[in-house]
Design a protein that fits this description.
single chain, about 120 residues, alpha+beta, five-stranded mixed sheet, 3 helices, about 20% helix, globular
């Protein structure tokens, strides 16, 4: 996560203390990271937990994970209103995901992911 995106998360935490990210898979908001209150999205066995970014759990669907699993994802922020329910939208900003392929060494060092339904 870029420093600019972290600053937006910090601002959102003033109003919403528990946040998560979910990489949206399309539909009306395209493929965008959505920042939501922790309990506003029902997660299930179709969601993969990738880890945490700036103390926010980060998820995406299994289908998307199959496509993106070989890439490093970086959450950034840009000016402009997205078409999603993400909490930063009223600020005139939107989170974006930037990606690059992992090197072979990086692939060997990755932590295991798990399904959202396996989290305790």
């Amino acid at each position: 996560m870029t420093d600019e995106a972290k600053a937006v998360v910090d601002k959102l935490r003033q109003q919403y203390p528990a946040l998560i990210f979910h990489q949206s898979g399309g539909c009306c908001d395209g493929s965008a990271p959505m920042c939501l209150e922790k309990d506003d999205l029902i997660l299930n066995e179709n969601d993969v937990w990738l880890g945490a970014v700036h103390r926010c759990d980060f998820y995406m669907s299994k289908d998307q994970f199959e496509y993106w699993q070989h890439t490093q994802l970086t959450i950034d922020v840009t000016k402009g209103r997205g078409a999603s329910f993400s909490l930063e939208i009223p600020l005139g900003l939107r989170f974006v995901t930037k990606s690059r392929l992992f090197t072979e060494d990086e692939m060997n060092d990755l932590s295991l992911t798990r399904l959202a339904s396996e989290q305790g």
